[in-house]
Specification:
Helices cover about 55% and strands about 0% of the residues. The protein is elongated, with a radius of gyration of 24 Å. With about 120 residues, it is mostly helical. It has helices spanning about 1-10, 20-40, 45-60, 75-95. It starts with a helix and ends in a 21-residue tail after the last helix.
Length: about 120
């Protein structure tokens, strides 16, 4: 999601223009579609951390408590970190490389004139 936002809405090279919101919305839709069965579609680790802590301490008072909130919380932290690393790696692999800069010739003599 972060990569889609960066490449469509922030990057000066983007050609998405006003359609960047469609790409971002589609990325959120895909995240929900894929992550819903895995972690309840928690694409924001901070919003998962609080409920997991509260549910852990107040689980006796809740009728529809799902056991394992703290145990499975690692998924909501590892997922974004691994996704960010994968996105950065893919960007590094597929980004066009800049032309190498010409290095000065060490045998050349430079003349500096002062007035």
């Amino acid at each position: 999601l972060c990569m889609v936002v960066w490449e469509t809405a922030i990057s000066k090279k983007s050609q998405a223009g006003v359609n960047a919101c469609l790409a971002i919305g589609f990325a959120v839709f895909l995240a929900h579609l894929v992550l819903l069965p895995i972690d309840g579609c928690s694409i924001n680790p901070t919003r998962s951390f609080g409920p997991a802590i509260v549910a852990h301490f107040l689980r006796r008072d809740c009728d529809n408590f799902a056991d394992g909130g703290l145990r499975d919380l690692w998924v909501t932290w590892a997922g974004p970190l691994l996704g960010a690393a994968a996105g950065a790696g893919l960007k590094h692999i597929f980004s066009p490389k800049a032309a190498p800069e010409a290095k000065p010739d060490p045998s050349a003599k430079y003349v500096v004139e002062f007035e």
